[in-house]
């Protein structure tokens, strides 16, 4: 890596790496795929991105995204289509709604592998970069969660990988084919998250081409991917405009301009937000940053792949940092180049005979994991500061085992002398930890964020004519678990406020007087069910009629009240 060509089949350790690739595939299928259905669906994101495609299937409406039967214009349509396709294949369940995100991570890792194998170091270097990518905690967390960021990151990775192959291609036909492929990925990214699909790659590609002294090629060839992306995007863009003329006004203003620069943008965070969270998101590789940086410094960034990867991570990272609205998942597209740079830096560092910084990095992380393993039973048994994560002993026992396993593999990696084995042992350290996460969700998190079991416990009370009312937080879960899209809203409408502006939907938003009137009118014909957070219910109770039935899943959770 780092610009050094290694003959295939002759590099030291290639046999070990090729055997390791079988283990990597097996572990990916186990940790990323097989366990997807274990963890309950969480609110609000997972239930939202499950319910919208469910409503598409139920209503046979594949053009206009709707949530709770209301227009929902915060994202384009492709992510919902892919989730809906997965549901048609696997059923309407947690596994199905997470499957596209997990597959996206695997395909992204495969792209990283092929990119590095082709341009920097061969099979072994490609496998190392792919493993680094898959073992970053942010990558794992997003890719086993039902959000659209994993799919968007896959398409951005496709844009960048295809562009570099086009940039390095010598034959005009091959160059054009890769530029078209880059445009296809750009169109798919646009259909997933919008115009950021153009801006993100552009802010990385332009400085790279200037660095390469080939900026004139931008004017000669850029029309090919742009035209291709337009051809991919245009059919749905026209259909949604004809069906819902207001879509583009709302989507461009609210989801792009306001989110980037308005003082009222959602998820406002300071400029340094991503700098602060990147070390945690990149674990377990963060302690090895100094070794990787030193290795990259020694390599001199002579390889076009390394220069490209540096532009790919640096300029989009700065762009997302400038934006007013921030979520940690937004920087997921920066992790493929981060994995490439870490792998290249470590390769160069070990090639120059370095060992100390790797040992220091692993040694820093080792006592952290041992401390966590020791602290968890103390917290669990003493209820330190009223924190008691689990009611079941096997869960915290499993968490302790995972921390100790992490520490043990770190020790193995420190003691190993061959650098490829050192890296693979280091990468193996968090695997048990990653694998048990679906089984050891803390009780309070499940109580607050996973109302599915509680909702299903009362499904026998949900008659076909029952009138369902919810507050904004769990409404998508109520829709998903009861297979309904006619839920009334009480209180702040939140993200559903736009859909409630339409005349045919305004009656779905209730104040306390309207709720009381609805209960009074429906007493003899149908039950009225209110599902809301316990804290909100306590604030609202004095304004509501007295229920005939009331149940809660915990003080930090939800109330099911029947009137």
What does this structure look like?
There is one protein chain. This protein has 563 residues and is mainly alpha-helical. The chain folds into three domains: 73-351, no CATH class; 356-440; 451-562. It contains 25 helices and eight strands. The protein has helices spanning 14-34, 45-59, 78-90, 94-119, 122-135, 137-143, 149-168, 172-193, 196-211, 216-221, 223-243, 247-261, 273-281, 289-299, 304-322, 335-351, 356-382, 393-415, 419-428, 431-436, 443-449, 452-457, 475-482, 512-522, 534-540, and strands spanning 66-67, 70-71, 467-470, 488-490, 509-510, 528-533, 549-552, 558-562. Helix 4 packs antiparallel against helix 5 (122-135), helix 15 (304-322) crosses helix 16 and helix 18 (393-415) packs antiparallel against helix 19.
Instruction: Determine the structural class based on helices, strands and strand pairing.
Output: mainly alpha
- How many H/I helical runs? 25
Which band does the percent of strand residues land in?
under 5%
Mean pLDDT metric: 93
Biggest sheet strand order reads 5-4-3-6-8-7
> pLDDT below 50 for ≥5 consecutive residues: which ranges?
1-12
- Portion of residues within helices: 55-70%
**What is the CA-atom radius of gyration, in angstroms?**
26 Å
- For the secondary structure, the number of strands is 8
Q: What's the number of domains?
A: 3
Tell me, what's the shape? globular
Report the biggest beta sheet as strand number plus sense, adding barrel if it closes: 6 strands, mixed
C-alpha end-to-end distance = 67 Å
């Amino acid at each position: 890596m780092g610009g050094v060509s290694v003959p295939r089949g002759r590099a030291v350790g290639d046999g070990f790496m090729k055997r390791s690739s079988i283990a990597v595939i097996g572990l990916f299928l186990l940790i990323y795929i097989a366990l997807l259905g274990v963890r309950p669906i969480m609110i609000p994101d997972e239930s939202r991105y499950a319910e919208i495609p469910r409503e598409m299937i139920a209503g046979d409406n594949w053009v206009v995204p709707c949530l709770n039967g209301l227009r929902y214009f915060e994202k384009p349509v492709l992510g919902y289509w892919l989730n809906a396709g997965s549901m048609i294949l696997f059923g309407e369940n947690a596994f199905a709604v997470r499957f596209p995100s997990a597959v996206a991570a695997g395909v992204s890792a495969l792209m990283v592998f092929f990119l590095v194998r082709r341009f920097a170091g061969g099979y072994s270097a490609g496998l190392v970069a792919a493993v680094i990518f898959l073992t970053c905690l942010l990558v794992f967390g997003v890719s086993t969660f039902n959000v659209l960021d994993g799919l968007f990151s896959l398409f951005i990775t496709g844009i960048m990988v295809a562009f570099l192959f086009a940039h390095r291609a010598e034959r005009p036909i091959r160059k054009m084919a890769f530029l078209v492929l880059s445009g296809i990925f750009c169109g798919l990214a646009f259909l997933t998250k919008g115009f950021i699909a153009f801006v993100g790659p552009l802010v990385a590609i332009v400085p790279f081409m200037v660095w390469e002294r080939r900026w004139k090629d931008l004017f000669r060839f850029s029309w090919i991917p742009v035209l291709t992306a337009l051809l991919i995007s245009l059919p749905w863009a026209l259909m949604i405009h004809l069906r819902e003329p207001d879509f583009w006004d709302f989507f461009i203003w609210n989801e792009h301009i306001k989110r980037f620069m308005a003082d009222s943008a959602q998820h406002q965070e300071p400029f340094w937000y991503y700098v602060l969270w990147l070390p945690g998101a990149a674990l377990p590789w963060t302690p090895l940053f100094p070794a990787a940086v030193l290795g990259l410094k020694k390599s001199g960034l002579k390889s076009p792949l390394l220069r490209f990867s540096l532009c790919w991570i640096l300029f989009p990272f700065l762009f997302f940092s400038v934006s007013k609205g921030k979520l940690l998942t937004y920087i997921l597209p920066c992790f493929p180049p981060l994995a490439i740079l870490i792998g290249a830096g470590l390769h160069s560092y070990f090639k120059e005979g370095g060992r100390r910084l790797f040992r220091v990095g692993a040694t820093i992380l080792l006592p952290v994991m041992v401390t966590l393993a020791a602290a968890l039973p103390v917290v669990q048994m003493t209820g330190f500061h009223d924190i008691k994560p689990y009611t079941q002993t096997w869960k915290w026992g499993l968490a302790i085992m995972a921390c100790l396993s992490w520490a043990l593999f770190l020790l193995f990696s420190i003691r190993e002398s061959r650098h490829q084995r050192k890296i693979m042992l280091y990468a193996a350290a968090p695997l048990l930890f990653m694998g048990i996460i679906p089984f050891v969700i803390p009780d309070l998190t499940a109580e607050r964020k996973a109302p599915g079991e509680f909702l299903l416990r009362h499904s026998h009370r949900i008659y076909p004519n029952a009138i369902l009312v919810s507050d904004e937080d769990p409404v998508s879960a109520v829709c998903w678990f009861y297979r309904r899209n006619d839920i009334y809203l009480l209180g702040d409408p939140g993200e559903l406020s736009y859909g409630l502006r339409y005349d045919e939907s305004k009656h779905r938003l209730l104040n306390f007087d309207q709720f009381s009137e609805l209960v009074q009118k429906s007493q003899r014909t149908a039950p009225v069910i209110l599902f809301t957070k316990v804290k909100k219910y306590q604030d609202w109770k004095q304004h509501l009629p007295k229920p005939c039935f009331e149940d809660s899943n915990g003080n930090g959770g939800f109330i099911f009240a029947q009137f």
